[in-house]
Amino acid sequence: MAFKFIVLTCLVAAASAGLVPAAVSYAAPAYHTAPVAYAAAPVAKLAVEEYDAHPQYSFAYDVQDGLTGDSKSQHETRDGDVVHGSYSVVDPDGTKRTVDYTADPHNGFNAVVNKEPVAVKVAKVAAPVAYHAAPVAYHAAPVAYHAAPVVHAAPLAYSAPIYHH
Predict the structure, then answer these.
(1) Max intra-chain CA distance, the chain
(2) What is the dihedral of CA 14, 15, 21, 26, to 10 degrees?
(3) TM segments (predicted)?
């Protein structure tokens, strides 16, 4: 315990004498600017969309990619609170899934799913290549390790000798 106290005392003495650089802290420079006068900008009236009591729309899309075999489509119409639609997609198992759906306030959402086999030409992916690595002979040469010489630095401050156990 006394050893630690002596070491701590020596370090404090060395720092106080200026032999050990003290921690340096940097602060950001303070900039003083002229006061700015703020004028309140006029408040813009937010545009509020009118509520459509009877919304109507219709949309559709169709994707047919002969290279990859990607095939999907959808169409949907809305008239007020009643929605009718259908979508189809070719699943990875080679079947075409078609979903016909309706939604209205009285019956909720209802969907009917149909699956049918489809012959689709899909781009073929190259077959995996068999890879067999030849065994590698490895013979490690013995390595000689030599310790680097120990260099002692000059002491920072003169103090009582420190004894190691």
Answers:
(1) 96
(2) 180
(3) none
Q: Which two structure tokens, joined as six digits, stand for 149?
A: 């010489």
pTM, 2 dp: 0.43
Q: Taking Cα atoms as reference points, which of 116, 82, 88 lies closest to residue 100?
A: 88
- Tell me the three state secondary structure of residue 61: strand
Q: Domain map of the chain by residue range?
A: 66-117
- Mind listing the pLDDT tens digit for each residue in 68-111? 878 899 999 999 999 999 999 988 888 999 999 999 999 999 99
Task: Please check whether residue 21 is in contact with residue 14, taking contact to mean a CB–CB distance below 8 angstroms.
Answer: no
Per DSSP, what are the bridge partners of residue 64?
Answer: 71
Spatial contact of 86 and 100, defined as CB atoms under 8 Å apart: yes
Q: State both tokens at 95.
A: 């079947």
Instruction: Domain 66-117: give its CATH code.
Output: 2.20.130
Give the integer Cα–Cα distance in Å for 47 and 41: 18
Could you read off the pLDDT of 128-141 as tens digits, one per residue?
666 666 676 666 66
